[in-house]
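Final report, Chapter 2: Outcomes

The project's central promise was a pipeline that accepts a single protein chain and returns its three-dimensional structure in a standardized token representation, suitable for archiving and comparison. That pipeline is now operational. To close this chapter, we reproduce one record exactly as it appears in the project archive, with the input sequence first and the structure output second.
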Amino acid sequence: MPNPKGNPQNFEPAQQKGNEVLSDQLSFRVTKEMKEEVKAKDDPPEFCRRAIQDALDKDREK
């Protein structure tokens, strides 16, 4: 029978991948196909952050 209080490892904070604090959230709509493709990536949140940062950098160069 599983432990009703959960696994203690689940209560540890996740390891941050960068050196900046990720404190804000951004929400937007996408097509079902886009969502499925992003969800299929190894690390969907990091994939989205990189894609947005690349687009912002490219826009800044104009």
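Archive annotation: Residues 30-62 form one domain.
This record, like all others produced under the grant, will remain available to the consortium after the project formally closes.
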